[in-house]
Amino acid sequence: MVASAKIKPLKYRVFTRNDLAAIPQLQRLAPDVRLSMQAVATVLPFRVNNYVIDNLIRWDNIPDDPIFQLTFPQPGMLEAPDLRQLRQLLAKGVAPDKVGTVARDIQNRLNPHPAGQMELNVPRLDGQALPGMQHKYRDTVLFFPAPGQTCHAYCTYCFRWPQFVGIDDLKFAARQAESLVGYLREHKEVSNVLFTGGDPMIMRTAVLRRFIEPLLDPSLEHITTIRIGTKATAYWPYRFVTDPDADDLLRLFEQVKDSGRHLAIMSHYSHPVELSTPVAQAAIRRIQRTGAIIRCQAPLIRHVNDDADAWAELWRTEVRLGAVPYYMFVERDTGPKGYFEVPLARCYEIFQKAYRRVSGLERTVRGPSMSATPGKVIVDGIAEIAGEKVFSLRFVQAREPDWVRRPFHARFDEHATWLDQLRPAFGAKEFFFEGALKKMKRDLREPAYGHRIAPRKPVTVFGHVEWE
């Protein structure tokens, strides 16, 4: 792999909460606004880099610029009383530990781990919980390598913000691949492993290799797909182009492909501007030459991309560059959701308008999708059935495979922003999946996936083993 001669290397420089005053562009903001940003950053993680600052933000358009909203603390991210209290403490120069105590109290009220992540998703091996992993859906295991539990820059709405605020009890992280390999050998129903975080691409290639190479062993032939979730293609595309070990990273991608596995780079693009720079497009080209497929996903976020034109342009640009539009998500019910969330009815309207404006090639995208406790729920439509206005919903992924693609309906609610705010339509007392989900929650003594649903069984097809 040879880096593009047109792209000059850039030295990575990171800015965190303590560096807010050192960012020259922020000096144009009033001191009062900067104090509020400092206050928000005591509660929610802040991290940005020089590439984002210098290339993705239009500083003549702040605070409305979408990437500024996406990466810098905004006053509306905290409830007014909490913001006021923190501002007063900072203005008085109160000791950091006292400010931290107040911040921790606020964090604990922000639903730090939604969708049953801690209670229902953590698998077990030999009776021991594996806290650096999640197994929510039959075919897919999520793995959180400890060295990858940070990012080149943080998204302000991030639903995994507890990973980055120093609360060890709320953090998913695994320090070696042995437990993952042991679990996969016991669970032949798993075909996909997703490396996630944080961002695995923050790791040096030599470190990432220690986690990925063990999965290429022939004894794990049932692992047919490796996914890597990343925002680096948007926030630090130099990782794939001119960083010192960029070529080695792409050789690792080729190694995965040469093993017979499918490699999917799950790229997080929130706005078309993230695809507009030469280095971002060079990163895509270099990844594609390894045989990896780039699939693109992001949530619909107020103040950032709550606009049908932006989504249509995003999907068209992705396809033009050879990437695959995959998911439009709904902002999760955690952290500063009150500032970023969009009502489901509005999400559906934006998705439909954008979907109508693109060709069939862009319509690989699915959404708007809620990654809720029972699974990924798509808002399929808004309709009137038997005189009642309803949301038409279905699962595209679920804790119980039998739930997938099974349609169900909820009473229309123009203000609802999440599944748990919806009520069954047509007089039903509960949604079809709620009884089984309640049973799962009661049976917490065996939260591992494989204890809840029978794994697939091996069958011989044309002389080789497959899994039904």
Description:
- With 468 residues, this protein is an alpha/beta fold.
- The chain has a domain at 117-343 and 434-452: Aldolase class I (TIM Barrel).
- The protein is 31% helix and 19% strand.
- It is built from 16 helices and 17 strands.
- The strands form four sheets. The chain has an eleven-stranded mixed β-sheet. Strands 1-2 form a two-stranded antiparallel sheet.
- A hairpin with a 3-residue loop joins β12 (366-371) and β13.
- α1 (31-41) packs across α4, α4 (80-92) runs antiparallel to α5 and α8 packs parallel to α10.
- It starts with 13 loop residues before the first strand and ends with a strand.
- The relative contact order is 0.11.
- Residues 445-468 have low confidence and may be disordered.
Summarize the entry for a quick read.
This protein is an alpha/beta fold. The protein is 31% helix and 19% strand. It has a domain at 117-343 and 434-452: TIM Barrel (Alpha-Beta Barrel), CATH 3.20.20.70.
Give the N-to-C terminal Cα separation.
39 Å
Residues in β-strands, percent: 15-25%
Mean pLDDT: 90
- What is the molecular shape? globular
CATH superfamily heading of one domain: Aldolase class I
Number of E strands: 17
Strand order of the largest sheet: 5-6-7-8-9-10-11-12-13-14-15
